[in-house]
Design brief:
Blueprint: H1 2-17, E1 28-37, H2 41-52, E2 58-61, H3 68-77, E3 83-87, H4 121-126, H5 131-147, E4 152-157, H6 170-181, E5 192-194, H7 204-213, E6 218-224, H8 231-234, H9 249-261, H10 264-273, E7 276-278, H11 280-288
Parallel strand pairs: 1-2, 1-6, 1-7, 2-3, 3-4, 5-6
Helix pairs in contact: 1-10, 5-6, 7-10
Length: 290
């Protein structure tokens, strides 16, 4: 098996070396960002494989998640990873509710009467949350991650776009937090977004390969959700009926993402296209070195 692996590696190296060189202006740069690290025990297994055996370049840790402590430990053991905080204001899973980092009576406008985060943004925003409480909670999530030894190199948002959250004043808060911590906000660096989140399980790998094969020069962001097919992951059911994976469930879908990220087919198309994998640490360093 080792001999076969060496032959494959040498073949791929020869392929990339024999390709015509791209100029800097022609580069295809790709950030592969994994979300929800710490959401489940299965996410920890998946992120470690996706970083160390796959093409994952960034990992977003979800601080209110039940496995945050395990995720933080994993980040401490792998300081070379580019890790960020997945700023979280909602918890969308049935029977697996999340609470804020701050005492819930201190941020009562962002939780329900039992102290749990709301299950989707529309529900939260309908309650007219106070911007000062939102900001306090988001900053507390970053501070807790830093306290636990996570090297916070960027921030992004869970279940909402940092470009347009749909709530007056929230976009400005997210940008301000990024500026105050001197970290980039994923999605606000003129990245072009791609993804295969809703693609059927059996089609994910082929779809991802085709997606990357069509990339043109520029900066691209692929947001994905690595996982494993375990009883814990299969038990995850979305509170929004339209977002439920009827076929295969969350476990199979996220496991196939991991399979895709670590596949020879995906690595081959990256080499064939001359795609430059990058992360927010490298981009931020490049921006500030000009």
């Amino acid at each position: 098996m080792k001999t076969v692996a060496k032959i494959v590696a040498l073949t791929l190296c020869f392929a990339i070396l024999s390709m015509p060189r791209m100029t800097l202006a022609q580069n295809i740069k790709l950030i592969v960002r994994g979300d929800d690290m710490g959401m489940s025990q299965g996410s920890l297994v998946a992120f470690e494989r996706a970083f160390n055996q796959g093409v994952l370049t960034c990992g977003s840790i979800i601080v209110p998640g039940p496995w945050f402590e395990g995720a933080a430990e994993l980040c401490r053991k792998n300081p070379g990873w580019c890790t960020g905080v997945h700023l979280c204001l909602v918890g969308e899973w049935r029977g697996a509710r999340w609470r804020p980092v701050l005492p819930w009576d201190k941020v009562s406008s962002i939780v329900d009467q039992d102290g749990y985060l709301y299950t989707y943004p529309g529900q939260l925003f309908a309650n007219k949350p106070k911007l000062e409480e939102i900001e306090a909670e988001l900053r507390a999530q970053i501070e807790l991650a830093k306290k636990k030894g996570v090297n916070v190199q960027y921030i992004d948002t869970h279940y909402m776009s940092p470009k347009e959250t749909g709530y007056p004043g929230l976009n400005e808060i997210i940008k301000k937090i990024g500026q105050d911590y001197n970290v980039p906000v994923s999605g606000l660096l003129d990245e072009q977004g791609i993804g295969i989140y809703t693609v059927p399980v059996e089609e994910k790998k082929d779809s991802a390969v085709g997606m990357l094969d069509k990339l043109e020069p520029g900066l691209w962001l692929w947001v994905c959700h690595p996982g494993i097919d375990s009883p814990e992951q299969r038990a995850l059911i979305h509170t929004d009926p339209q977002a439920i994976f009827v076929e295969g469930g969350v476990g199979r879908h996220r496991a196939e993402i991991l399979n895709t990220l670590t596949s020879l087919e995906l690595k081959s198309i990256i080499l064939k296209k001359g795609i430059q994998l990058t992360n927010y640490r490298e981009l931020w360093k490049e921006k500030h070195s000009r």
